[in-house]
Amino acid sequence: MAALQADIARPLTDRAHMHRDQEANVPNNGREADNGSFSWPIFVCFLFLTFNSVMAIIRAQGEMMAVAFVSFSYVDLVVLFVFLRMYERAPAGSGKRGWLKIGIWTLTTLLTFAFSYKVAAVMPPLVAVFVWIMAFTTVAGGFLAFFIYKEK
Q1: Interatomic CA distance for residues 68 and 56, integer angstroms
Q2: What is the pTM of this model?
Q3: Which pLDDT belongs to residue 17?
Q4: pLDDT tens, 21-56?
Q5: How far apart are CA 129 and CA 85, in angstroms?
Q6: Where is the chain membrane-spanning (predicted)?
Q7: Around Cβ 97, how many Cβ atoms within 10 Å?
Q8: For residues 84 and 79, what is the distance between their CA atoms, to the nearest angstrom?
Q9: Cβ distance 89 to 28 under 8 Å?
């Protein structure tokens, strides 16, 4: 009872710092246990992505470039989500996080360029140039945010 009264009497800012410090000691900051499983919403999203990719391949009716684009996009997204999950679970400041950052940036860059290529192909030339400028700006911004900018 005395501990509860002391906690109530403690200023709110002290309690917030204490709560944050206690959360830091909990594995995964209170998230689900790190058993490698996915939650059901993530599973449903992957099922939806897989279903749509298969349907796009079927609708392509054997056109190899369309099948290659859909297959590449699907594999890229799945690997990207795996890398993001590994990045979130890697210890802060570890070399593994650095390598995963490179992989994540590379995968997002490839996906950006793949979609930009498909969009620019059906646009008028001036709009296609604008699409490519946006793609390169996005990739450069991602590079700056991931590798150049450091939090203070």
Answers
A1: 11
A2: 0.70
A3: 46
A4: 444 444 444 444 455 666 888 889 999 999 999 999
A5: 34
A6: 38-58, 64-87, 99-120, 126-149
A7: 15
A8: 9
A9: yes
